[in-house]
Amino acid sequence: xxxxxxxxxxxxxxxxxxxxxxxxxxxxxxxxxxxxxxxxxxxxxxxxxxxxxxxxxxxxxxxxxxxxxxxxxxxxxxxxxxxxxxxxxxxxxxxxxxxxxxxxxxxxxxxxxxxxxxxxxxxxxxxxxxxxxxxxxxxxxxxxxxxxxxxxxxxxxxxxxxxxxxxxxxxxxxxxxxxxxxxxxxxxxxxxxxxxxxxxxxxxxxxxxxxxxxxxxxxxxxxxxxxxxxxxxxxxxxxxxxxxxxxxxxxxxxxxxxxxxxxxxxxxxxxxxxxxx
Length: 277
Known about the structure:
- The protein is 52% helix and 6% strand.
- It is of the alpha/beta class.
- It has a four-stranded parallel β-sheet with strand order 3-2-1-4, sandwiched between helices.
- It is globular and about 55 Å long.
């Protein structure tokens, strides 16, 4: 099995890692999926926003494998809250893979929105979501100009908890790693050759300065994945999940809250029931 990608080998509630044979199957499945989506769209290739994080890095590696470096274009889109380290990692990934990429500063674009509605800009989450949605617009701008599709970077853990911006980072044509829990994304990343420091990097959407995913979610990813697998995706009750994983009922309730409150993000915008006229 690939070198450990567990955050804490001794205290991880549930080991969701795949065998090497399973990882090979997932790798082939995802690369075939990417190539198939591009072909089905009649597109020339794909565009991918590069953040320097594990999700976008893993998708970049798999997309190059599926399409070739010449058919993947990267966009590195720093804002005022992004760290130099993450942006350097994003460029490093592009350069290691040999893909064409552009660096686009998004703050001047975001500032136009803040100036248009200054009272809304005072709300931290609303302000942060503007940056995410600006990136989505730029991804599609580049994709439309080059006759490409936009690859998403969302994983299963984020989808089930709603940990994404509606019409932002999930405004994409497909999510190649969308069926994998975060623990499995890290493992697949290591399997395809992503450098160890990026595999184990602390996840952050960098919505604001100092933000981390796990602090905002309220629990670490390995615990989150375990509860999702056994309780949300799986058949276990709250009490059984607590016993099986040695977690607290409060942690299970937190995951339930994230799942239930984000249901609208996983559905098409609602419309009234059809009338018989």
